[in-house]
Amino acid sequence: MICPVCNSQVPDGLSVCPYCGQPFAVSPTSAAGASATPAVDNIKAMPQPAMPELVEKHHLDRAIRARHWQRWFFYGFIVLLFLAAIGIIVNMNNANSDLIAKMATADQNLQSTTASLNKTTTDLGTSQQSLATTKSQLADMTAKYTQAQQDLDAKSATLQSMITQSTDISQQLKTAQADSSAAAGNIRALILRLAVPISNQNIAKIPVAVTGLNVGPDSDNDGLSDQAEIALGTDAKNVDTNHNGHNDLQDLTNGYDPSSTSKSKFPVDQKFANGLKGKIVLETQRGNAAWYIYPQNGERYFLGLTADGYAAMREMAYWTSGYKGTQ
Ligand SMILES: [Ca+2]
Ligand SMILES: [Ca+2]
Predict the structure, then answer these.
(1) Which residues sit with Cβ closer than 5 angstroms to ligand 2, an ion?
(2) How many angstroms separate the Cα of 23 from the Cα of each of 15, 37, 49, 170?
(3) Domains of the chain, residue spans
């Protein structure tokens, strides 16, 4: 049978384990039968170690085996700890390397960010200066705009005043033109009333003063105005009315009658002319031409056609003023 305490194989029928001293329960059959004798015999036949030594040896063996297993467990545990420590160190080393790399990267990023920040700060300073300059310019422009607006308002007011004045002047000019037209009519009527009528034949007896004959339009550009050519009976659109090879002004300057087809000189009668000194004569056959007979030399000075009474008045004022300029 097996000892329940030390698990040692012991012969059946023993009341005590010979290895550990554990008492056994003795069955009645084995305790009081004839079979008890063989068991005792077996026990006797077996080498019987001393009981204390056996127990002590058994305990020592168990302690040794326990120590043995404990030692191996300890060694295994140490190995595991060592491996774990190596793993931890390796991981720490790797982590440290990663941290160093990350720190280097972070340091580079920090330097880059710092440089970028410094540049941004510089740009910001520049932008602030530019903004300040722009604000200053804007304020200056605003002031100029305000001044320009004020100037514009002032000029607008001045212009409006000038427009008002221009309207007044325009109205005054219209009034003056009406007055002038009325005055010209009155002067024309006065000349017609005061002038001495003279025939085309008789006026040719009065020498022509070759001055004052170029006032106004000159269609053929021969030096005689269109009105003067009407008064002289020449063609205002033909420089040589009598076809004698000399233009109308040249004929007149040399005493020839530029309207005469006979190409002859004027039939000047100075005595007749002197009789009309200081008077206005009106030759009615050639557009009511008015002439002033100058008192000093008895020559006739063209005043104009009475259709233009105002011009006639100016000419008469000129010739009667005593002034003989370059007209
Ligand atoms: Ca002419
Ligand atoms: Ca001629």
Answers:
(1) 240, 242, 244, 246, 251
(2) 6, 19, 17, 160
(3) 186-320
